[in-house]
Amino acid sequence: MKFGGNYIYHRFTPTNAYARSGDVVFDLGDITRFYAHDAALYVNDEWDITEKLRVNGGLRMTYFAHIGPFSRYVEDPSFEGRFIDTIDYASGKKVKDYYNLEPRVSVRYELNKFSSIKASYTQNYQYIHIASFGSVSLPTDVWVPSTDRVKPQYGVQYALGYFRNFKDNLFETAVEVYYKEMKNQIDYREGATPDQDVRNNPDNNFVFGEGWSYGAEFFVKKSKGNFSGWVGYTLAWTERNFPDLNFGRDFPAKYDRRHDVSVVLTYERSKKWLFGMTWVYATGDALTLPTERYFMSAGPPVSVNGSGGLDVNNNFYILSGYDNRNDFRQKAYHRLDFSATLRSQKVKKFKSEWVFAVYNMYGRQNPYFIYFDVQGIARTAIRECKPSRSPCSVLSLQLLIILNSDQ
Amino acid sequence: MILSKSEAYFNPIGQNSINNLPIRGAIVTISNGTDTIQLTEIDTSLNGVSVGGFYVALDSLTFLPTMIGIPGTQYTLNIITADGRQVSSSAVLHEPVALDSVWFKVQDNLDSLGFAWAKLSDPDTLGNYYRWFAKRLNKDDLYYTPFGSVFEDKFINGQSFDFAYNRGTVQNSEAEEDENEEAGFYKKGDTIVVKFCSIDRGTYEFWRDAENQLANNGSPFAVPSNVKSNINGGRGLFATYSVAYDTIIAR
Fold first, then answer.
1. Domain contains A378
2. Residue A243 forms contact with B (CB below 8 Å)
């Protein structure tokens, strides 16, 4: 049996602002800080019920307390940005605390000498959260603890797997399916900007929702012999739902990745030469693109001029309208890398390696990001920012000197 | 006001869309709670091309306004299109807030180029919103807005302070003075008419978001979002402006 505990004292400073014009200093409120206690006790044990059945179980007891000094700004529900009250908590005084139990259990049943089944159940609470402002050019990540407003994020995962070895354990294979549910997910409300966190609590600008993810993983590995390597494939879905985002409709998470493939091969030709090859493939990130375009005159569209005629405002903004969040996909990401390693003999405590590597062998132009280009007033084109074309993008040469510690 | 349709984002913009987007023949009314007026559809031309979809609250003969704005009043807009779609909105006309003073100041060691400065005393009730327009006499056709043309009194409520604006231009201007070192600056010799507008929250939020969206266009990191609109059943804005004018002679 294993057991233990931990304790952390947190201090967060998500917002810090100051502004003045000439001699006039503007009131941007006090610096918003969060203080919190974070403690946990855990116990874990493993039982061999029968020769074939092994159970591993654990329990983690968590305690998290958001404490003062703290000022909660109370917003007028009918008027975003107007505050009707402030609730002050003295230093060390409890604002809100949470106790939670995190049980987990996994079971392995050996079917025979070379195959087994594993099943697991895990439940987790998370008390530290990150939210990003998306509405600004350079997004700001804001870290906050659980508070009276931000409930701990809760996740529960079920997994079931079948494992089998072939050819006298030369090949290891696995198939696993999983389902994960996440509650109390956080995000900034639609269109929130960093100034809305000033003289305010950042979590007043959060909206809350849930997420879920499910999929299957396939894995084959050969670890013995001169020729070794593994192939992994994951098929997955990750979605979210926030009543206050995307018109309340489900949307894919940014990193919803339908297909993810890795192929890693190693060939040990001699004691001196080692060759390696890696190929990765991943479905492109989900992203939101505008679906509609509309014109707005930059000021009053028509005005009466000094001579009693009408002036038409010909200064137009072209604005974008968005429909479903993350409804489009970037192109898939894939790349082949190759390396050759020349290993030297050990010299005293050191050995050295020359690594010759070529990244992106077939010069795949993976998009880094996408932007729009308005050409005249004629049309909008979609552009991908990607590396320049070359047969092999990068050739790298490195010398590794490794201190051999077991000498 | 202008009434038009939106179009699919990747459609080319051409003569077709300029002909087809305006919505003609709608019934547009504005009410101040007691009186309701119907706006008149006018034919107008833009860069020499006839464009529909313009509706004005002006007498068709005299061009005199058919309804006069009264500060503190809520105005309601109702639109019924020829094919039966209904759109509505409402906005409050705020009290105008005049600037205390306006002036031109040369920027750092730039010989004759500088910004338009102003001193504002914000009223001590929270909930004031402003938009800055300016026009150079004999140089600009219209009152233009620089980027960041709207602001609110959330952090400046009841205070007196100085602020400055750069020179706004028509969108995507390719004029020489907007491409060379004079871009964004006023110049000694300019006569600048400042149109300082007190606006309501809906107008503020719309232009805050719209300017943000245009500024973020092309940023790989920004999560795009819709511009907040005060229109029920459509995109866009029903705006109210309470105007105070000032003139700066730059020297």
1. yes
2. no
Verify that B113 and B50 share a domain, yes or no. no
The verdict on residue A314 lying in a domain is yes
B-facing residues of A in 270-289 (CB < 8 A) are 288-289
Using a CB-CB cut-off of 8 Å, the residues of chain A touching B208 are 193
Question: Per-residue confidence at B89, pLDDT binned at 50, 70, 90?
Answer: very high
Q: Does some domain include residue B7?
A: no
Nearest CA-CA partner of B149 in B98, B90, B91, B215 = B215
Q: In this structure, are residues B128 and B152 in contact, taking their beta carbons and an 8 Å threshold?
A: yes
Measured in whole angstroms, the distance separating CA A290 from the mean position of its chain's CA atoms is 23
Single-letter code of the amino acid located at B97: V
Domain identity same for B21 and B117: no
pLDDT tens string A226-253: 999 999 999 999 999 999 999 999 999 9
Q: Which two tokens stand for residue B68?
A: 């006069």
Strand partners, A127: none
What's the whole-number mean pLDDT along residues B24-42? 93
Residues A295 and A362 in one domain: no
**A343 to A59, A272, A404: CA distances (angstroms):** 47, 5, 13
Is B9 within a domain?
Answer: no
State the total domains in chain B.
2
Domain match, B80 and B157 both: no
| Whole-structure pTM value | 0.82
Beta bridge pairs of residue A240: A211, A251
Is residue B217 situated within a structural domain?
Answer: yes
Q: Compute how many other C-beta atoms are within 10 angstroms of the C-beta atom of residue A64.
A: 23
The percent of residues in chain B predicted with pLDDT above 70, rounded, is 93
Of A71-85, A385-399, B178-192, the one with minimum mean pLDDT is A385-399
CB pair distance less than 8 Å for A319 and B45: no
The predicted-structure confidence for A293-334, as pLDDT tens digits, reads as follows 898 888 888 877 777 777 778 788 889 899 898 888 888 999
A322 vs B contacts (CB less than 8 Å): 224-226
Cβ distance A294 to B213 less than 8 Å, yes or no, reads: no
Give the total number of structural domains in chain A: 3
B4: nearest CB among A22, A295, A302: A295
DSSP string, A159-207: EEEEEEEETTTTEEEEEEEEEEEEEEEEEEPTT--GGGGTTS-GGGGEE
- Are residues B142 and B234 both part of a single domain? yes
Q: Which domain holds residue A66?
A: 1-166+186-201
* Contacts B239 to A, Cβ<8 Å: 300
Residues in chain B closer than 8 A to A372 (CB atoms): 217-218
Whether A352 and A388 share a structural domain: yes
- Considering the domain architecture, whether residues B61 and B114 belong to the same structural domain is answered as no
